[in-house]
């Protein structure tokens, strides 16, 4: 899809992303309401993450290679050959899934122990039951992922962006019904959720004229080339999933509910990052790839510098605000039903430590996209593997001292190390991309953010006892006003750019 066309749809895409993130958060709010931070919620979260992890190793990596390979085959041999390639890849993927599903069905307890070493026998049995029920969801995850890739090839980005809505609806329904029918229903809810995704996407694929036919041709050179591309991608996307799995496994040895607390905290943290960053990073990748093809390296540097400065402008106050307002935020989102005071404290502290790395995670993702634009997956893969080892070591050390907060802190420290490393390596690769300007803008955003933080802290302290929600709303409003005013006084370059664009809209 051309960048200009993507930018025309960015408003719709960002709206859908925000709705999807909020809907995903509501799903976890419902889980927290019914099961709090208990062994049942721990078991469910581990069981639902196992198919997702396996999917990332197959489906996500495959779709990354699928799109460029489909375009190549279509250009060289025509649409019929490209569709045959799609059928072949789909069939082979489903066969691989069959092997993995058999493993999930036959050895669920061993898999649970691999992902959550600290589970007792009862929690392990609950998680095993969930895994058996949800195992077949792997088939539907892969079908949806390849289907999404096919729609994107045909310039349909809206449906793939909205695909999580029916899935979350099914999961929410299953969680609510499980409270009366039985806990086991949540496992089947995962399976039904992904079936619903396939049913949702099929009509849109049919409109393109594509029809699936069973094709198995392992000797096809295009399949071989796809697998060659997939291997480094599998390592690249898999390491973050392994990282999450190991963090949860370490958390399972700390206390009952620790996995749930980490998950609920990361939901809020990821929502902030996703809403503020996803669209920016996507546009950066599209623009950078176009500039690289045209040998416009200076444009890449300018685009990256502005993107980083923009992220600092948005995420520094967001990070400071979440750290200060962690308790009221967690209280508003999750404090109902079985989510008790202990659950609030565990989730709050994990959220605060996760938020330390928020800025660095976002910038890291931007740097990774620029490496991808230069078709350099080797650097990002090697650094990711090293950072995982660091994160495991830090998680083991910090968790002994800080408990569940230590796991969150290790994630943030690892993100900081990863971000700085990639920044240095990319600078060596393409030269300086205005680091002095970035440092000045960082200092201005940090000073403004700290001032904002003081205002937010004072307002929150004064109003919290009377009304938690009112305290958050007023704190955010006054904090934003303070932040913007200080930025304008300091003449922050990104802030002045935004102000200039706003003036052009209203003053014509």
Describe the structure.
With 508 residues, the chain is mainly α. The chain has a domain at 1-35 and 39-237. The protein contains 20 helices and no strands. The chain is 86% helix and 0% strand.
Please supply descriptive tags for the structure shown above.
globular, disordered N terminus, 508 residues, single chain, mainly alpha, 86% helix
Compact overview of the structure:
The protein contains 20 helices and no strands. It is an all-alpha fold and 508 residues long.
Topology, pairings included?
Layout: H1 3-35, H2 39-77, H3 79-106, H4 108-115, H5 121-134, H6 137-153, H7 158-162, H8 164-181, H9 185-207, H10 221-252, H11 258-293, H12 297-324, H13 326-334, H14 341-355, H15 358-373, H16 378-402, H17 404-430, H18 435-463, H19 468-489, H20 493-506
Number of helical elements: 20
Distance between the termini: 32 Å
**What is the count of β-strands?**
0
Judged by helices, strands and strand pairing, the structural class is mainly alpha
Major sheet characteristics: none
């Amino acid at each position: 899809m051309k960048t200009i066309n993507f930018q025309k749809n960015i408003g719709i895409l960002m709206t859908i992303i925000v709705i999807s993130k909020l809907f995903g958060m509501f799903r976890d709010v419902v889980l927290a309401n019914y099961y709090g931070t208990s062994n049942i919620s721990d078991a469910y979260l581990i069981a639902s993450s196992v198919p997702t992890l396996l999917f990332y190793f197959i489906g996500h990596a495959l779709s990354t290679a699928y799109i460029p390979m489909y375009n190549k085959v279509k250009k060289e041999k025509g649409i019929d050959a490209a569709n045959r390639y799609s059928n072949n890849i789909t069939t082979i993927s489903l066969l691989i899934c069959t092997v993995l599903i058999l493993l999930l069905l036959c050895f669920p307890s061993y898999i649970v122990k691999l992902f959550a070493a600290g589970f007792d026998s009862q929690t392990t049995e609950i998680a095993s039951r969930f895994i058996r029920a949800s195992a077949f969801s792997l088939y539907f995850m892969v079908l949806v992922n390849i289907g999404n890739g096919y729609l994107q090839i045909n310039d349909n980005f809206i449906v793939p962006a909205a695909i999580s809505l029916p899935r979350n609806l099914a999961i929410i329904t299953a969680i609510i019904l499980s409270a009366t029918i039985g806990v086991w229903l949540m496992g089947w809810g995962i399976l039904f959720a992904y079936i619903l995704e396939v049913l949702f996407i099929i009509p849109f694929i049919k409109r393109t004229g594509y029809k699936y036919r069973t094709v198995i041709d392992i000797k096809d050179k295009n399949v071989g080339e796809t697998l060659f591309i997939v291997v480094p991608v599998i390592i690249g996307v898999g390491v973050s999933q392994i990282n999450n799995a190991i963090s949860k496994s370490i958390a399972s040895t700390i206390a009952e509910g620790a996995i749930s607390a980490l998950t609920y905290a990361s939901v809020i943290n990821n929502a902030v990052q996703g809403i503020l960053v996803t669209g920016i990073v996507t546009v950066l990748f599209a623009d950078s790839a176009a500039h690289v093809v045209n040998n416009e390296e200076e444009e890449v540097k300018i685009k990256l510098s502005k993107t980083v400065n923009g992220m600092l402008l948005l995420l520094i106050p967001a990070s400071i605000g979440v750290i200060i307002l962690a308790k009221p935020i967690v209280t508003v989102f999750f404090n109902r039903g079985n989510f008790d005071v202990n659950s609030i404290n565990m989730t709050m502290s994990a959220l605060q430590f996760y938020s330390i790395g928020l800025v660095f995670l976002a910038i890291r993702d931007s740097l990774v996209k620029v490496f991808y634009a230069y078709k350099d997956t080797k650097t990002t893969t090697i650094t990711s593997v090293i950072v995982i080892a660091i994160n495991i070591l830090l998680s083991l050390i910090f968790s002994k001292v800080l408990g569940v907060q230590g796991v969150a802190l290790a994630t943030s420290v690892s993100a900081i190390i990863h971000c700085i490393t990639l920044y240095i390596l990319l600078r060596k690769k393409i030269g300086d991309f205005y680091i002095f300007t970035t440092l000045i803008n960082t200092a201005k955003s940090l000073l403004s953010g700290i001032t904002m933080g003081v205002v937010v802290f004072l307002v929150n302290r004064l109003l919290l006892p009377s009304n938690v929600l009112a305290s958050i709303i007023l704190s955010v409003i006054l904090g934003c006003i303070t932040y913007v005013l200080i930025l304008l006084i300091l003449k922050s370059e990104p802030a002045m750019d935004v102000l200039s664009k706003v003036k052009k809209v209203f003053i014509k």
